[in-house]
Amino acid sequence: MAKQARAIQTRRTILEAAGAVFDEFGYESATIAEILSRAGVTKGALYFHFASKEELARGVLDAAITTEGVIPQESKLQEWVDVGMVLAHRLPQEPLLSAPIRLSADRRARELFGTSWAGWIDYLAEMLTVAKEQGELLPHVDPRQISMLFVSAWTGVEIVATAAVSDGDALEDRIAMLYDCFLPSIAVPGVLGRLDTAPDRGGRIWAAHKAQARAAADGDGQVVRG
């Protein structure tokens, strides 16, 4: 078990280093040597987990589809909001989450191994389908079409937020504004008024998740709600 845990941690360390390098240099300019230097592992350890730079990039893309930190909510639409807000909170500090956007936006990289967008669209569409079944969405809403548009918009907002034209707003502020524009066109009025889209929503949910994890580690099974 200890050996398996070390292997899992080594793989994670390599992926985080690869994410940082891809995020900083892009796919073409990233080198295995730089990834090894950042990861602090041997070449043999890296190639045990990943046979090539392409496999590393695929691993980074796979890691992009994460709902870590998102706490289940009675309102599935609120939970859908929380996915994007938690990601907006985490992404500026976690290259493993921001690198997939740079890889997906790179045409050459897309030709080699695709993008993370399809996975996000599928996941968010499933959430909206449940929200619609719960009566939270307007009758005309197509969960898949809305998810495709939202992933496109979320990605665009992140790219602009990190570009030179940034007006200084944090990513969380921009994503909160995006939800405020999107939600009135899809949510039933009674649900819309109860949704929390404050810019600090992602940070609060992430902190609650961390507290829940600490409680579980201490043997406390209490569930922490956002």
Structural descriptors:
single chain, 226 residues, mainly alpha, Arc Repressor Mutant, subunit A, Tetracycline Repressor, domain 2, 2 domains, transcription
Summarize the structure.
This protein has helices at 2-29, 32-39, 43-49, 53-64, 76-90, 95-105, 107-113, 117-133, 143-161, 171-182, 189-192, 201-217.
What does this structure look like?
The protein is 69% helix and 0% strand. With 226 residues, it is mostly helical. Helix 5 packs antiparallel against helix 8 (117-133) and helix 5 (76-90) runs antiparallel to helix 10. The model is unreliable at 221-226 (pLDDT under 50). This is ScbR family autoregulator-binding transcription factor.
SSE layout and pairing:
Elements: H1 2-29, H2 32-39, H3 43-49, H4 53-64, H5 76-90, H6 95-105, H7 107-113, H8 117-133, H9 143-161, H10 171-182, H11 189-192, H12 201-217
Helix pairs in contact: 1-2, 1-4, 1-6, 4-6, 5-8, 5-10, 5-12, 8-9, 9-10
